[in-house]
Design goal:
Elements (H helix, E strand, L loop, with lengths): L1 E2 L8 E4 L10 E7 L2 E7 L8 H19 L7 H7 L6 E2 L2 H16 L9 H6 L14 H8 L7 E3 L5 E4 L12 H15 L5 E5 L2 E5 L8 E6 L9 E7 L2 E7 L4 E4 L2 E4 L2 E2 L4 E2 L6 E6 L2 H14 L1 H10 L3 E6 L6 E4 L23
Antiparallel strand pairs: 1-13, 2-10, 3-4, 4-8, 5-7, 6-7, 8-9, 9-12, 10-11, 12-17, 13-14, 15-16, 17-18, 18-19
The structure holds adenosine-5'-diphosphate (ADP) and magnesium ion.
Length: 352
Amino acid sequence: MKTASILVPLLMLLSLIGCNRVESPVRLQGKTMGTTWSLTLSNLPAEIQSKQLQQQIEELLENINALMSTWRADSEISRFNTSTSTEWFDVSPQTHSLLQAAVRIHQQSGEAFDPTVSPLVELWGFGHTLPRQGLPDDSQITSTLQHTGLEKLQLHESAIRMRKSIPQLQLDLSAIAKGYAVDEVARLVSTQGLQNYLVEIGGEIRISGKNPQGEAWRVAIEYPHIEKLRSAAVIISVTDAAVATSGDYRNFVEIDGKRYSHIIDPLTGRPVTHNPASVTVITTDCLSADAWATAFSVIGSRKGVELANSLQMAAMFIEGDDDKLTTISSDKMMKYITNTPSQTQISGSGRE
Ligand code: ADP
Ligand code: MG
């Protein structure tokens, strides 16, 4: 088996297109959560030191990782995961409120979003353990499903505590933590009085105000095929919103010559097999956009568009083979799209 997954799913290409009056943009960047982060400021007022801002962002991200990274044995979430106790576990307010949001999205998505899937993620060879040989069999999947399900996590109603109803329960915040971190960076930047910026971690984005040209920010959604990576399939235009994309075209495992997505259907215990090749969600906060992009990948385009419309959410599903690209968008998504996809199979455009 060959593992073709990468941990840096840069699903979007950011583009600052246009050439009107240009402020001097400032870009800060670094590494976090197995990927990269960046902050693009349309301008930096003289009273704000970029070095100091960089340091504050790095500290903030470090604190989030210390709580939520499953790649760190000593993080809060790893301590909860390795504990087999079903007693109450004192948790940070940050993790507690993130999990409250996760529970809400789990329920609204018909359990498609489920941050307890880690034993399944491991079983299929996407996790921390070595790549697997051959497919897991039905009995392994059935027995692993006994250890998953967000209903097995209880959040205390009045205290900041949580507990497992079975010792084996584990949390994997990979599908929501990047979005959460983007929101926290955006909050930090806003408290400094900055209004025009774009924050991005591993392709999950939060946008405020205008770009350096004084226009709406434009974000290119990548063509979701390995052969055409870094080509813009769809260009969206956004002022105050968060944008997240999930897709399996950069992150998959190959078992016996067949590709399996890193997104698991929590109800079947198997990687999602149907299209869409990518899902993009636009909401006000990046935590929700991130989690919903994963949820809609499980749900699929047909039911996904119906659900997005009923929840008044902006979601776009990109499907199709190498030659023909189809986008299926919810009603609310339409206002963000600036092009018809067939006109913009641009090759060679890259990250700014
Ligand atoms: P990416 O990390 O590529 O941005 P996602 O945000 O969709 O992609 O997160 C996918 C990760 O989330 C997987 O690698 C796995 O750890 C975890 N995961 C897989 N399936 C689900 C699911 N149904 N609900 C919640 N998390 C999931
Ligand atoms: Mg996600």
